[in-house]
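Shipment paperwork, digital attachment
Item: protein structure file
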Amino acid sequence: MSLEMALLAEARDEAAVLAEILELIFWAAEGLGDSHGAALARGAMLARDRVDRLRALLRQIQPP
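Attachment content:
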């Protein structure tokens, strides 16, 4: 495996882990049930949208 392929695989794995962490933050914030929890949940979902976009871009990269 080339270095580029290994780095791309690692970047994809890290993005997947980040998406899972944001999902956990979202559900924890939802459990708070107050305005702070709602704000935290919204922030987590906005960040998750960015991670989803990053994952889509990473999928478009073709290893050499």
